[in-house]
Amino acid sequence: MFLCILFGSLVQADTGILRDPTLPIGKSVAINSDKSAVVVLRLNSILISQQRRLAVINGQSLRQGDEIKGTGFRVIAIDAHSVRVQSNQATRVLSLVNTKVKK
Fold first, then answer.
1. Residue 12 DSSP SS3
2. Which of 53, 66, 72, 96 suits a disulfide with 78, CB 3.0-4.6 Å?
């Protein structure tokens, strides 16, 4: 089992994309914003109050209209469970993981 984990991490490193192994699988969005680089966008949280709407993406606290540093993407909408981002080439929707606990 240890060899499988080690081999899996070697394969990921070979692709040039490093991923936090503690994150749920498939919850990051990898986007080719240009022909040479892959941009990984991870929606960490959404905070909504009467005064403001904030989204935390890749550890950055952002409002509608803010640019996600180093990605070429801009936040265009923040909803209760998702955030829409846009670059010159693409529009994407980032969604939160369902956090409801079953009783």
1. helix
2. 53
Rounded Cα distance between 28 and 30, Å, is 6
- Predicted confidence at residue 9, as pLDDT, reads 37
Helix/strand/coil percent split, the chain, to 5: 15, 40, 50
| Pairing relationship of beta strands 38-41 and 29-32 according to DSSP bridges | antiparallel
- Whole-model pTM: value is 0.61
**Average confidence (pLDDT) over 85-101:** 85
DSSP state of 76: E
Q: Which has the minimum average pLDDT: 12-26, 51-65, 89-103? A: 12-26
Domain boundaries, the chain: 24-95
